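User: Continuing from earlier, I have the next pair ready.

Assistant: Great, send them over.

User: Here they are, in order.

Assistant: Folding the first of the pair now:
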Amino acid sequence: MPDAPPAPGAPPTRPAPDGADPPPAAAASPRDAPPAASRNAAGVRSTAGRSWRRMVAGGPDALVVAGYLGLAAVLTAGQWGRPDRLFHQAGDQILFEWMLARAARAVVEGDNPLRSTALNAPDGVNLMANTSVLGLGVPLTPVTLLLGSQVAFLVAVVACLAGTATAWYVLLRRRFVDSRAAAAVGGLLCGFAPGMVAQAGAHLHMAAQFLLPPILALVFHPRRDRVVRRGVLLGLLVAYQVFLGEEVLLFLALAAGVFVVAYAVADPPAARRHAPALLGRISVGAAVAAPLLAYPLWFQFLGPGHYRGMPFHTHGYQLDLASFTASARQTVLGDPYLPGLLAPNATEENSFFGPGLLVLAGVVAVWLWRRPLVRALVVCGALFALLSLGAQIRLDGAPTSVPGPYRLVADLPLLDLAVPARFPLVCVPVLGILVALSLDRIRAVSVPAVPVRLLWGGAVAAALLPLTPTPIRTVPVWPVPAIVADGGWRAYVPEGRTVVAVPPVTGAGPSPAMLWSARTGLAFRAPGGYFIGPTAPGDPTARWGAPDRPTAALLRRVVETGEVPVVTDADRRAAVADLRHWRAALVVQGGLHLGDPVRRTVDALLGPGRPVDGAWVWDVRPLV
């Protein structure tokens, strides 16, 4: 981070010459500070200290990381060894299980990782235009192949939560604080805040934030030498982050821009001093990332199956002002009903910091306001919190007449695709850094040291304990039918033909075909699915799933109403045409005891089916 005036009571320092280490500053505790570490005038640790590899390799630092891993494992406990359970947003988990299985298959078979015809047959899906999380799926290939897509998904959730907490812990320990405990608490908040837990249960692309701290460490490096080397590393990390989550990268870029402007206003001399090196690193990073991302981004925006816009109105996904002081559902004090009034859905409870943490952050801001770093952080966090309130601010579930600042940027390119309710995810590391800075500063208090430290430690504990996360909620799911799981379908499906799951979902609902495909390692091709694609071959307007076919629409109505319609000869002819379009060979319905109206409708369309290995099947080869 850029330089700032020395803290009160610190010995005077002079700026270090270019290419030299900053002068050492007085450590708050020689016992806790690493021997080779030094700090610049801003109190930011220089990179002369221990490397992050040594930090996480053993000793107390390894215990901190182990604690993060243990907590993440506890939060996912509801699914380990339970193939009949999914996290509460079942459709999202099915999507990401399928993406992980697809990445593993692409690695093994050398397929194009940016597109697949295993779903939405025969047209396929533009995976780059969806949340393919190749940055997780490729490294997790051995896990996916050996233990299946569900275990791979759970490992990914643990890696995202614990990895993000660890990355922030390392950055805090190396750049911001001397106290290991302060860094550990800050990392805990950054990795396991209510918004992070809410996203982790459904959106791997939003929870995978473990590259953000190293990216920021390179962008705001305190030294001004080795611009090219650090720029190259920056470009490689940015390129990798694109394959984890582009929306998170967009938020990072916006937040960094706001931080830079706010810091330049707070400390113009330091900003001028560091601007050339900062711009140089960013320029080199852009030059490195551009050729790596040129083809994937072209494929995303112009390749087969690309789309324009979003299939939902992002403006409607906003947070209620009261959500910032409320308790999220996935916390020890969580209310199962109130958050539903204050957030668009259970996965977007991204604020819910509680009154204690917000009051604590306000006290820290006033206490450390003299530091330009703190001023810039407060401006950044406050701005993104305000943007999350949408174009018209809501309070306690009701709209007010107060316009929100989001309306000023809602139609800007890229921002028009971002979900406003996710902007508070920027506030999470802001709060984590402020808490860590306060705990580190309180260690320097001399008289009376012990009472003040105990008092402040108690205040931090009182603010954070209500945010303690609880295991992510799960819901039941019908297991993959034995005819699919054991490969019995192969006797009916020749090469080039598909398995049609009933009902063939074409909208935003959970897709049984995707779950069966993921759990069998994409063994068969299937129509439909849960993804974003174009409305029609000549219309790139975004929609959920594949364009509607008459039979899919008919069966979806049966699912929604539970009523068996009168099936006409026109319906039967349309069903045969749809099966031919899907290149179907076998129609399979699982969960029989819940789908009798659907089964009876399919019988009327295709003729009587028969039960085989835990499912009702229709061999449609004679029809198509």
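And the other member of the pair:
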Amino acid sequence: MSIWDKGLANLAAYRGVREDLAARRTPIQLVGLAHIHKVLFAASLVTSLKKRAVMLAGDEAEANRLTEDLKALGLRVLYLPARELSLRQMEAAGREYEQMRLGVLAAMAEGGYDIVVACADAAMQYTIPPDTLLERTLEIVCGAQLPVKDLPAALSAAGYERCSQIEGAGQFAVRGGIVDVYPASCPAPIRMELWGDTVDTLGYFDLITQRRTEQLDAVAIPPAAEIMYDDAATLAADIDALAGSLRTKNAAEVRENLRRDVDRLRGGARPGSVDKYLPLIYPVKANVFTYMRDALLMVSEPSRIKERVRTYLWQLEQDETALLEENQLCRALMEYAPSWEQMMTEMEKKATVLMDNFSRGGIGLPTAKMYTVDARQLPVWSGRVELLAEDLRDLLARKMACVVLAGSEEKAAQTLAEDLQKAGLPALYAKSPEAPIRGQVLVLAGGISAGLELPEAHLAILTHGRAVRPIRRNRRRSKDRGLEIHSLSELQIGDYVVHVAHGIGIYQGVHQMNVQGVVKDYIKLEYAKGDTLYVPVTQLDLVSKYIGTK
């Protein structure tokens, strides 16, 4: 049990929720929780019940705050982004979000997480089933034989892009008996030296220095593509059979468009619109709820979740309608996400906790229990010791157990405890305290986005605060140096630029493209051998000006 769980132990609502979850009396509704209280409840329930959890957020900004605050409380937290489906033929598209998703799904399949935070649309999108992901995961063991006869072919079949030197997740490179690969689930790329078909050495290495950083005994390499097929010929045959079965008035036009992808597959190319065939590739539907197993489901502001789901499904329906009108799609290929009613069925089956700030109208989900919590959110501490001491005196006069988060540095926490002692307060620096103590101030290292007070639990948490960073993939610097671009006006056609995942290319201007019925601006980058990459202008931060190497 954590200090936070023990801090909430005096709260009747918390004890009731914990007992209800243990007895599977769900769904449960909690009312009165602001953002920071949801964080504390989620962290405490996960640690006390020894369960994992998936937490649904209303939008990316909330998901960002939840992820950062839960991490600050010491949990292994993963953020799952949504991705745009490629339902139209495109030359190339960025795969950063897909790589992030695959890293999270691999961790979920193996149980390597405490909480996954996601917006509803990211959680509901159909994806690779867990069994398929695990079947296609390569288990590499140092000192043992490779699990496949042809490792490069197996990596290519698993969706990895072969290149001369890897620069980002989802890539691999082969140089003689050395194979480098960067799985999205790993914190760094992997280098293996082979002696024939035996793994001689295995370890992480640094992208910039190319030096090994950590030896490994074994590693799991999951697939690098969410939508992947076992055999191009089989998928081509399935699409051809579907095309032949069409009997609508516009069947000839649809059949012609589908069979273009059949020709691509039989010619050895991967269709740019491969997501369109998700229902054929994965007859068994799977999404994040499938990966949860017995994990808890925590829903922040259910009414906002419902609205986001409906907006996502409406947009998906608009995209599908446009494709139907253009004879690019048939109704047999229109299952990419469940309905809201199916989502509610999943919530009813899971151990679900609905968390609301205010009591609102129901979302149509029957609840087994409802609890109301008297909870208050406190502003962050400005850094002035005299103001903090004044607030603490008021709380201690009410016999509260006070916890102060003093920032990331332990030395700062020790110094603050000494300053509070000099101010006459019963303050104590504690590195790993077991529980809050009424009438005592415990000073810890760390920081969350807001403080809180729970009068019934006699608990107050004050924090120095911290900057909430936007969620983005942790990328290692490329060896190719780049100068940040603030505006497209800084680029001229022919300039060399660096993409964080794809390396150095030539800028060829901004092109408008109709993507799923919506006209968007894309930056066109040209690479060697005629390869082309289109990057949405909204992802300008992924591209920098090439200024050479030092």
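Worth noting for the second one:
The radius of gyration is 26 Å. Residues 403 and 442 are 5 Å apart (CA to CA).
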